[in-house]
Amino acid sequence: MIVAFSVSPLGVGEDVGEYVADAVRVVRESGLPNRTDAMFTSVEGEWDEVMDVVKRAVAAVEARAGRVSLVLKADIRPGVTDGLTSKVETVERYLAG
Length: 97
Description:
By secondary structure, the protein is α+β, with helices and mostly antiparallel strands. The chain has a single domain (2-96), classed as 2-Layer Sandwich (Alpha-Beta Plaits). 44% of the residues lie in helices and 26% in strands. The protein contains three helices and four strands. It has helices spanning 17-29, 47-62, 83-96, and strands at 2-10, 34-36, 41-44, 67-75. Strands 2-3-1-4 form a four-stranded antiparallel beta sheet, with helices on one face. Strand 2 and strand 3 (41-44) form a beta hairpin. The radius of gyration is 15 Å and the shape is globular. Belongs to the UPF0045 family.
């Protein structure tokens, strides 16, 4: 399973990078495969472990902000591993072809 999510504090002003870093730190420390870009952090693993990471990432932001926004998209496909890499490689193959 791959989950792409964005967690952001509300009511703290425009500069939220420090808060987002708290969430990304939780993801990176989880040991699960992950990637962060300008809009989302993606994490790959089994349902319970991925959702636990998302929950802890939200809690990290919530610890410093009274209100938190969470956007989440999931690709639930049992038996697939390394989807973070293989899905991008497939698209790159088509672009190169």
